Target: HTH luxR-type domain-containing protein
Amino acid sequence: MHELLLDLYACPSAPERWPAVLDQLRDRMSALSAVVQVLDHRDGRFHPVWTVRDSYSSAHWREHDRVFNNDSNPRLRVGAGDPMPRHAAVTRDEDIFPPGSADLREVQRRRRALNLGANLSGIIELSPGRFLALVLHRSADCPRPMGAEEEALAVTLLPHLRQAVALGEQLHMATLKADLLADASERLGAGVVLCNGGGRLIWANGSARAILAGSPVIRQSAGHVRAVLPADAIPFRRLLARAAGEAVERPLLLTLGRMEGDAVVQVMAMATRWAPAPVQVPGQPRPVLLLLREPGRPLNLSPASIAGLFGMSSAEARLTAGLCDGLSVAEYAHRRGIAEGTARIQLKRALAKAGCPRQAELVRRVCASLAVSLTQGGGLADAPRLAAAVP
Model:
């Protein structure tokens, strides 16, 4: 039993291990098949929403789904109008269907069609309206029914199955949230780094990895985020230590490479609000979130995003994106091969649609909008490395 439980609790982080665990249970119960399902109970019937099977059932899943695991299964109508069990309950088909009833005859017919004999089904509540079911079948060639020993094992195992499934769902949701946050971070136009107060890198998004790989003022070295220039090293370490060690209400800001012309990286450091780990390593700094931005890089805003947000035409949005990347109206017109007068007419219309009196206000409003966060691309790919401001 201990080995079975150890393998069971490995399934939340390694779902591919479910068939092997159910094989162990099947062999322990002298069963032919073992299936675990999550069922939603609504409109007076059960609706399967998740299923894992032992290797035998996995090999025959098409036939099992065609004959048994579908909406016409009489078992899924059990409980209509009755209170649902909150604690582990174990039943057999012959216990829940009246003797000689049409439903019992239909279930037995389906079992024979799949070479399935005596069954044992356990059910336990996962959450209101959602239940976990364990379904075991002996072979039709085995006359021995599931007895008290198998029933006791199923009752003992059901809470552990519930816990394993709940942990798997929590892990799946945490992974999904992490993936969504990572995807969202890529759309911010800034590098996002999670490190500890000593600079040890925990995670970085793609923009941050590009900065750390190519910037002359901040790099990843030996698993740590470090300032490259001697003049920046001490201020950067102090920034990390302060963010990790103090309850700082406002973000801490630092510019690295201040004397290096365009090779500048702006750093914003924020202390995380994570709860301490259950097992705290003595002296380990708390995590710190860093936002990295190279202000000399063009934004390459999507004209489609600008057009959608501000109701501009494609031509007006392309011009606005060029201005946000630091081009003058004359430079934009030259690059697009249009007359400067035409570009100025487009600018006038763009200003009116964005509700801006001046070109600089238009750039500020667009750069502060969702256009910065939306999908990149579609801007001027050959825009020069200029500050995103215009006179």
The chain has three domains: 2-174, 187-293, 303-372. The domain at 2-174 is CATH 3.30.450.80 (Beta-Lactamase). The chain has a mean pLDDT of 85.
